[in-house]
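sorry for the late reply, my laptop died twice this morning and i had to redo everyting from scratch. anyway the thing you sent over, i finally got around to it. pasting the sequence first so we're on the same page, its 92 residues, then the predicted structure underneath. double check i copied it right bc i was rushing
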Amino acid sequence: MGVDDRREHCRTAMSAKVKVSHEQLGEFVFSTRDISDGGVFVVVDNAPFTPEMGDKVEVQVQGLPMPAPVLNMVVVRITNDGYGLQFDESVN
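ok and here's the structure:
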């Protein structure tokens, strides 16, 4: 069974600008590649954003007519071009 076969949620391609805030690394604006009920994949390319697996980040969609909610997420996947972020269910 491949990695994609183990996914709990179906992914949908979606490109949106999101601000990602990390306590030590700072704030960055990235584009999303896809989204699911469980999280989002952000495309980082060559940005100096290098979190570790399990790091917590805050994510906020940008460019809406009003401020979007800030979501707590956890780094659960690292690839050459970005990071898979999962909604952090431990935060209320």
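The radius of gyration is 13 Å.
thats about all i looked at so far, will dig more tmrw
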